[in-house]
């Protein structure tokens, strides 16, 4: 008979995660949350679009600056009365909504630009991004069979949204520029290339510089020639064209200016490297993504 000797085993608690491992886990969780946000990224613009279409922000238009209605007052002040009893609990405006409300003459708002970017025309364009790589053509042309500016001429409803977005955007930007820029005080004739509805010229003349001639719409092609003036203004024009075309446009501007004339260019300057925590960098780069999608540069 054999005796077996068995020693008792000492058990130790399983070591917990190190500080380094906890940090890795937190980073992985953060990345997972970012991934989940991407999967549902379409939700926010669609919810906000519904708020605009329902007239939620228009309900606030009549209020004085800094005054906000309660959720119940907003819900029951809509053009179409809500039948959902929970509606007052579902509407909660943020201060940022003020930028989407037109508060009078020369104020402008981002509502029209938002509606433009969320339109079916633009949505269809985004579904053709792969064509930029596969076919070396811009996504807008792939989606609609023609360029953006050509399409504007064929769709009255889209043209109205497009022109309003350009006009409102110009109003918001120029109001700020005119507060600090003094380079127009000696100008008598100002040419706004691609001026659309004449919003910028009208704002410049009516608010600051009445000596400048009234708005006159002049048809033409900036790639052939540019109307003569003391100064030539371009906002969000050059970014829509490649380098070769930009040189052609600027050359025509130079030919149309007097000896001491000037070209005034208003556009966003892209940082050499976007920073994830810099909202201005993000806005500029999103703008470049839009341009590359619509024009393929």
UniProtKB/TrEMBL annotation:
Ranges for the region named Disordered are: 1-26
Where does the O-methyltransferase C-terminal domain lie?
126-214
Superkingdom of origin? Eukaryota
One annotated GO molecular function: O-methyltransferase activity
Keyword annotations from UniProtKB, A to Z: Methyltransferase, S-adenosyl-L-methionine, Transferase
List the InterPro entries hit by this protein, alphabetically: COMT-like (IPR016461), COMT_C (IPR001077)
Q: Which GO terms describe its biological process?
A: methylation
Official protein name in the record: O-methyltransferase domain
